[in-house]
Amino acid sequence: MPRLPKNFQIDWVSVEELTPGGYVSTGPDTAVPTRFQANFALSEPESSVKIEVVVGADLRPLVLEVAVRGKATTPITTSVMRHVLVDQLLRAAMDKATVPSSVRDEWLATLPPGVQPMDRSQADPVPSADQRLRSQADEDARRAAQIYSEAVAAGNRAPGLAVATAMKRSRTQVSRYIRRARDMGLLPPLGSSEGA
Length: 196
Hints:
The chain is an alpha+beta fold. The chain has 6 helices and 7 strands. Strand 4 (35-44) and strand 5 (46-55) form a beta hairpin. The longest helix is centred in the C-terminal third of the chain and has 25 residues, at 129-153. This is Bacteriocin-protection, YdeI or OmpD-Associated. Residues 111-140 are annotated as: Disordered.
């Protein structure tokens, strides 16, 4: 097992299964929840961390979300974030989440007759980072279009500035949102008298 850096120390970890739940076999005598949250207390860097994990069809665990909470003595900084080792957290979470296969068998026994557990290979694939970014960009464009349209309807002569203020984004970023909203057909094409 690789040695952990001196500036990274897990004090304890707990695991909570998330719904919809289920288990997948990880060996002849072990299983792991298909979806769970792991909670950590770290002494180095001094913080608490939550990660959401999903176990894919290939039994490869994927981290979907990470939340880090600092303390007054250790606020969250770039330096602190560099020391939160997600791969090490995932390894510890998987160790903690692994249960005897009897737990999976008990879970299977609770399913109503005729109901089969979802085959992870048939599950909806976890969205890629690109898909999540595109989805977020579309959501930002929709919100920008709504704010922009409301500002225009209210007679605001600088609707782009209204979007920047409401969304707390730079004018450059808001221009991208508005351009995307126009491409999506949420706002009319740019006319000679209209500006972003």
